[in-house]
Amino acid sequence: MTSIKALVAESAGLTSIPPRYTFTRSPDDEPVSDDPEDSIPIIDLSLLTHGTPDQRSKTIHQLGKACQDWGLFTVINHGVPESLMKAMTGACGDFFNLTEEEKREYGGKHVLDSIRCGTSINASVDKVLFWRDFLKFFVHPQFHSPSKPAGFREISLEYSKRGRELAMELLKGISMSLGLGDTYIQNALNLESSFQILIANLYPPCPEPELAIGLPPHSDHGLLTLLIQNEISGLQVQHQSKWVNVNSAPNAFIVNIGDQMEIMSNGKYESVLHRASVNEKATRISIATIIGPPLDMVVGPAPELVHRETNAPAYTRMKYKEYLQLQQSNQVDGKSCLDHVRILPA
C-alpha cells in the first residue's frame, strides 16, 4: 500500500484525490463549531500536584467536570519539557521522511505487532482509505522503537517515560473525582504494568480536504490518550451533538478519555468521539500516547461505582487485549466496539 506521503510526492501538482480516499460524511457532520462557548476545559496540573489543599480540591472537581461534560481537556504546567515535546515531534517527522523502503522494514501485519508502520487504519478492511500515514510502537511494559532515524529511540524512550508519569498523575486526580482513593485506578488495574502505545500520525496536504478525512469518528480503546501536535490543528471532537475544533495552547497536552475509562467508571465518564480533518496547505503531525491496563487485565465497572438498586452494571467484563484486537481488526465505526460489552436495560 502506497503511503500518502509517497502519493503526494509522486503526483506533482496533484489536484484531486483518488476515488478510494473519498469519505462520505453524514448530514449531521457539519458545520464545525468555533464558538468561544465551546472552548475546551483547561487543567493546570501544577495545582493538582503542588497546590494548596483548596487548590487541589478545586482542580479535582474541574477534572471530574471536564471528564463528565467533555471527555477531553487541555493540560498545562504538566512538567514535560517543551524541548522534549518539540524533539519528539521533529523525530517523528524525520521518521516519515525515511525512504519507503526503510519504512517498509516496520510494516507489521498484526494489530499486536510491537512496531507497525502503514497508512489509513487497517487497509485490509477499510472500505475507504484515510489521508494518514502512521507509526505505532509499544513502549511499556517493554520498550520497542524503530532504530531509524538516528536518535529516534533515545528521544522516544524519554518522551514515553515522561508521558507515562503525566498520565499517572492525571489518573490519581480522576480517581479522586470519582470518589475513589487517589491510587484506586492504578492499583485496581495494575498500572505498574500498564500497556502504553505511542502513535505518530502524518497528515500531508490534501488537494480536496472537503472530500477526504485523516481519521474518521472514533473513540480510543485505552484509559487515557495524551496528544501533542505540530503547530497545525486538525483534531475535532463531538460535544453536545456538534463537532468542535480543538486548538491547543503551545506546550500543552490534549487529553481524552478512552473506552476502558468509560467501562471502569460504569459510564460516568464517557469516551469522546473524535476525528482528524486535513487541509490543503500544510502537513500536520500529531503524536498520541495511549495508556491502558495490562493486556491480560479483565476490565469491568469498578464495584464501588455499582449499586444494584440505583446504578446497575452498564458493561460486561472483557480482557483488554481482546477489546483492543476487536476494535483494531474491524472497520472503524464510531463507538460501536463498546456495544460488544454494553449491557442494555431490561
TrEMBL record:
Domain called Fe2OG dioxygenase: residue spans: 193-293
UniProt KW Iron keyword: yes
Single GO molecular function: metal ion binding
Pfam families: 2OG-FeII_Oxy, DIOX_N
Source superkingdom: Eukaryota
Family: Belongs to the iron/ascorbate-dependent oxidoreductase family.
Protein name according to UniProt: Fe2OG dioxygenase domain-containing protein
Lineage: Eukaryota, Viridiplantae, Streptophyta, Embryophyta, Tracheophyta
